[in-house]
Amino acid sequence: MEAGFSEIRNELQSRDTLWRRIQLECQELNTELLKIREYKDMQEIQIKQQSFCAQLTEQQENTDTGLLLLAQSQQHQEEGLNKIRNHLYREEQSHCSEQERMKTEISDLTEELHQKEITIATIMEKASLLERQLKMELEIKTKLLAKQQLLDFQYKVIKSENAHLKEMM
């Protein structure tokens, strides 16, 4: 039996050694697998980094293009703004000269109106004087007419008396 135990023990030791070798190989394989995974992860990270760099480069190019377009747009806007400023300046100058012209015209019209008011006042004064003169002349003519009528009446009376005296004679 001891020989059977010895054989079993040898068999068990042999299997135990085999088992340990298998476990060692499993550990080596696990280590190898971990190294492969790390290498694969590193490659993925590098691919992601390259992709990210490419995206950054593309974004930078897009940004550069956008900045260039923005600069061109800003230049066009500044040109437009300068045109508007020049137009506004010309309009202001035109407006100022128009205001000056209108002030001069208003001043001239005011002076003309003042002269016309003086003329009207003078004419009114003369008209009032003429009206008084006409009233006086009318009174004189009325008195003369009354005197004339009185003289006519007296003449007719005297003529009639004369005619009557001639008849009597």
From TrEMBL:
Residues 99-126 form a coiled coil. GO terms for biological process: centriole replication; de novo centriole assembly involved in multi-ciliated epithelial cell differentiation. It is found in: Cytoplasm. Its main location: cytoplasm. It comes from the Eukaryota. Keywords: Coiled coil, Cytoplasm. GO terms for cellular component: centriole; cytoplasm; deuterosome. This is DEUP1 protein. It comes from Piaya cayana (Common squirrel cuckoo).
